[in-house]
Write a structure and sequence with these properties.
Elements (H helix, E strand, L loop, with lengths): L33 E4 L6 H13 L3 E3 L8 E4 L4 H12 L6 E4 H10 L42 H16 L3 H15 L19 H13 L3 H8 L1 H10 L6 H9 L5 H7 L5 H8 L1 H5 L2 E2 H18 L4 E5 L8 E2 L2 E6 L9 H11 L21 E10 L5 H9 L2 H15 L1 E3 L4 E3 L13 E9 L4
Parallel strand pairs: 1-2, 1-3, 3-4, 8-9
Antiparallel strand pairs: 5-7, 6-8, 9-12, 10-11
Helix pairs in contact: 4-5, 4-6, 8-9, 13-14
Subcellular location: Nucleus
EC number: 2.7.7.7
Protein name: DNA-directed DNA/RNA polymerase mu
């Protein structure tokens, strides 16, 4: 959110420089082009960001619609919606041309107003009933049979990137919408060749459909390509990939002029212990973890847990339990058959691990990976979760994932069954009793995995 003292409405007078802040004044390069970004369905924060971007490129961008506007930029709006909105503003008496956001992003990339093509115009979706191929997909992701074979990776990767960008911009609602759309495409039994095939499918909003159509018709989405090239997005990606760094911290660093790891290292920023470890082992933690590595780490974790609590049970959870062959970390759920024996276990396990020569991984196994450099080890992120045996089933379900699946499962339980599901219990909302849940302790540490002799 821009501080109130810096938020100003841009004047629509003739002397407008195309900037909303004194320090950002850029002369108008295209006086014949006056843009207005329609906030409806675009969102206020995204509209503000795009408006500032347009002004920095030398475009006139109006905050308030007027007769001066020549181009109305829309996102996720159909032509009927735009006509209705224009009529509410000026009774429909305007020569302003409604254009899809793709024209804006292409113009920003070109540094000038690009030629308006048919695909840039806001139009109603035309559907040929004869071409419709029906897919049947349940509304809730938790009710779908989704294999590990994705038949539409280009489409799902594009939607996932937009979801990530939305989440990094603190627009979680948009992020969830894109991820739900991607999940629907992952569940389809064959590749999508036309937008008409998607008619009637759940969770596919107008914005997602427009991205899909752009890719199917043009080979790529202009919005996705624009996002990929965004310096802000690239900086957020690099900085939030540091373990312990969230979007808000990364945004603050970017405002301070930090866009890379080198700049962060040279900046003198104060980092907490997790961030220091994340920066030190950045390259290691960016590498995918294989199932063989996860199994090797499991041996180390099991030795540690059993050493301090004989009889404890250790279960591999997360993506590997779902059948994935690689992941970005390794997760374990720990419990004991006797209720209460798990109390106080976590600090003991961590102390045991820290006592093993800084987790140097002196044990070598046939499953540990070969090291291609001078070192015979690398850092891997490991998450440990401890649960009492009475809550083990719910913890196992909750920590197996994926994040979207768990969100959808809890949404289904609430909407369809009037029940509340968590990683601790299942509660019938129609009952009067209130359950008090215990908090599952969670600790994160790094295991240095030993490799074979080079």
């Amino acid at each position: 959110m821009v501080p109130l003292k810096r938020r100003k409405v841009v004047s629509s007078g003739a002397g407008d420089t195309g900037s909303d802040r004194p320090g950002d004044k850029v002369p108008t390069r295209f006086p014949q082009v006056v843009l207005f970004l329609l906030e409806r369905k675009m969102g206020a924060s995204r509209r503000a960001f795009l408006s500032q971007l347009g002004r920095k490129k030398g475009f006139q961008v109006e905050e308030v619609f007027s007769e001066r506007v020549t181009h109305v930029i829309c996102e996720n709006n159909c032509s009927d919606e735009v006509r209705t909105w224009l009529h509410s503003q000026v009774g429909g008496r305007t020569s302003a041309q409604p254009l899809d956001i793709s024209w804006f992003t292409e113009s920003m990339r070109a540094g000038r107003p690009v030629e308006i093509l048919d695909r840039h115009k806001v139009q109603e979706q035309q559907i040929d009933e004869a071409e419709v191929v029906a897919f049947s997909v349940p509304s809730y992701a938790c009710l779908r049979r989704t294999t590990l074979d994705n038949h539409n990776p280009v489409l799902t990767d594009a939607l996932s990137l937009l979801a990530e960008n939305a989440e990094l911009s603190d627009e979680d609602g948009r992020g969830v919408a894109f991820r739900r759309a991607a999940a629907v495409l992952k569940a389809l039994p064959e590749p999508v060749t036309g937008v008409t095939q998607l008619r009637g499918l759940p969770c596919l909003g107008g914005h997602s459909l427009r991205v899909i159509r752009d890719i199917l018709e043009n080979g790529a989405s202009s919005e996705v390509e624009f996002t990929k090239q965004s310096e802000r997005f690239k900086a957020l990606k690099v900085l939030t990939d540091i373990f312990g760094v969230g979007a808000k911290t990364a945004e603050r660093w970017i405002r301070d002029g930090i866009h890379s790891l080198h700049q962060l290292q040279e900046s003198g920023q104060t980092l907490n212990r997790a961030q220091q470890a994340g920066l030190e082992h950045y390259d290691d933690l960016k590498q995918p973890v294989t199932k063989a590595e996860a199994d090797a780490i499991g041996e180390i974790v099991e030795e540690a847990v059993v050493s301090v609590l004989p009889g404890a049970q250790i279960t591999l959870i997360g993506g590997f339990r779902r059948g994935k062959l690689t992941g970005h970390d390794v997760d374990f759920l720990i419990t004991h058959p006797e209720e209460g024996r798990e109390v106080g276990l976590m600090p003991k396990v961590v102390s045991w691990l820290e006592s093993q020569v800084k987790l140097s991984g002196t044990k070598q196994t046939e499953n540990t990976p070969e090291d291609t450099g001078h070192r015979r080890w690398r850092a891997v992120r490991v998450d440990l979760v401890v649960s009492p045996i009475s809550q083990f089933a719910f913890a196992l379900l909750g920590w197996t994932g994926s994040k979207l699946f768990e969100r959808e499962l809890r949404r289904w339980a609430g909407h369809e069954k009037a029940m509340s599901l968590s990683s601790h219990a299942l509660y019938d909302n129609k009952q009067v009793n209130t359950l008090h849940y215990a908090v599952l302790p969670k600790r994160v540490f790094f295991v240095i995995v030993a490799g074979k002799n080079p």
